[in-house]
Amino acid sequence: MHFIYSEWDDRFNRSGKSPFDTLWDLFQELLTISGGDVSQALRWLNQIDEEYEITDQFEEGYGIGDFIDEMKERGYIRFDEEESVMMPTSKTDRSIRQKALEEIFNQLKKGGEGQHKTNYTGKGLERQPETRPWKAGDDTAHIDSTGTMMNMLKHSSLDQFQLREDDLQVYDTDHYTSVSTVLLIDVSHSMILYGEDRITPAKKVAMALSELIMNNYAKDSLDIVAFGNEAWDIQVKDLPYLKVGPYHTNTLQGLQKARHILQRKKFSNKQIFMITDGKPSCMIENGRLYKNSFGLDRKIVNKVLDEAVVCKREQIDITTFMIARDPYLQNFVRELTEANKGRAYYSSLNKLGGYIFEDYIRNRRKRVQ
Asked: Where is this region: Disordered (predicted)?
């Protein structure tokens, strides 16, 4: 893989960042691209420094060696004696996820983020301006005192006030729902082909979504599944270091695994987000890998469409984020979307995070049961 770096400027230093913070931002990006290889990320950092003289702009002679020492002191990297290599720590994992979240939120339009509500009313967290008659079980904290008083005055005399049950008015509240999401990430070889790094934006979105849910929506769940020749679970802590392999694209097994995960969840809303840049090109048949990389193999495609119908029957929405624009691939995505009655986005890499976050927010409002 080759990287082309744009011209370095000192805007970060002008913004008041310390030498460590300036290099730390850059190092986290390189570490994500390298799949967690600290040595490789440091080699790239040295190359960039040599070409653009970043550390020459720092006062007090702060260099890459000082940066490495400070990362060790702050607990961002450690030396693994068993493997004889430098390794990132859990503190680094969290920092990379938080950076991804901030980066994606900066891309969103103002007003696109925040707490998410349903179109239904009932017991909830936030008052609406509308009121309704009180009924057994309503929270007395939501009583509309003004409306209740006006109702009482309609049948009371000047010397005696009589409050009846049917006088009580309460504010309605917006209902917050829980949602269970499985994020499918394509790690087939095409995700790094043609000189374009597609896996890094996909990982960033997954990290940011994980951080958002863990920090803001504790009752929601997010599971992450990578799929190539097969599909397997990915832990949040492993996300920054997920790598593309010499794989075909087993979309069928990815969807099946996601559905099986969601079957075990007791949530109002269940959904699958799938990030891919290619067509389904393989599946497991009779315990063996059946593959065809040329065109759209109807045998494979029909099995994928059948799985999309099963997901629809189980009220699991599939939203596909296609980061390729080949016409025949778009035709496949249209077929998949029609079979599931889901949604599809043909997204550029820099808009991927915005699309997924906005869709996640919208889907939390659906199907309160």
From this structure: 112-137
Q: Quick one: 164 and 247 in the same domain?
A: no
Give per-residue burial for 93-130: e unless 16+ CB within 10 Å, then b.
bebbbebbbeebeeeeeeeeeeebbbeebeebeeeeee
- 202 and 294 together in one domain: yes
Domain ranges, residue 64: 11-88
In the DSSP assignment, the letter for residue 193 is: G
In a domain? residue 93: no
267 and 197 housed in the same domain: yes
Residues 222 and 313 in one domain: yes
Going by DSSP bridges, is the β-strand pair 343-346/316-322 parallel, antiparallel, or unpaired? Answer: parallel
Amino acid identity for residue 333 in this structure: V
Here the tokens at position 164 are 């009846």
Distance of CA 330 to the CA centre of its chain: 23
| Domain contains 196 | yes
Contact (CB, 8 A) for 262 and 315? no
Same domain, 61 and 148: no
Domain count, the chain: 3
Q: Do 192 and 236 belong together in one domain? A: yes
For residues 128 and 225, what is the distance between their CA atoms, to the nearest angstrom? 38
Those residues whose C-beta lies under 8 Å from the C-beta of residue 228, and which sit 6 or more positions away, are 186, 187, 188, 245, 247, 248, 249, 250
Helix (H, G, I), strand (E, B) or coil at 279: coil
DSSP three-state, residue 85: strand
pTM for the structure as a whole: 0.74
Examine the domain organization and report whether 166 and 191 are in the same domain: no
CB 116 within 8 A of CB 357: no
Find, among 19, 35, 16, 30, the residue nearest to 67 by Cα.
19
Alpha-helical regions (H) of the chain: 11-14, 19-33, 38-52, 64-73, 90-107, 145-153, 199-216, 251-263, 298-313, 327-340, 352-363
Residues 186 and 156 in one domain: no
Helical packing angle, 90-107 and 19-33, nearest 10°? 90
Distance of CA 317 to the CA centre of its chain: 16
Grouped pLDDT means (10 residues each) for the chain, 369 residues:
52 67 95 94 96 89 94 94 90 93 70 35 48 72 78 76 79 70 94 84 90 84 96 93 94 98 88 90 96 91 97 94 80 92 85 84 56
What is the rounded CA–CA span in Å between residue 156 and residue 19?
74
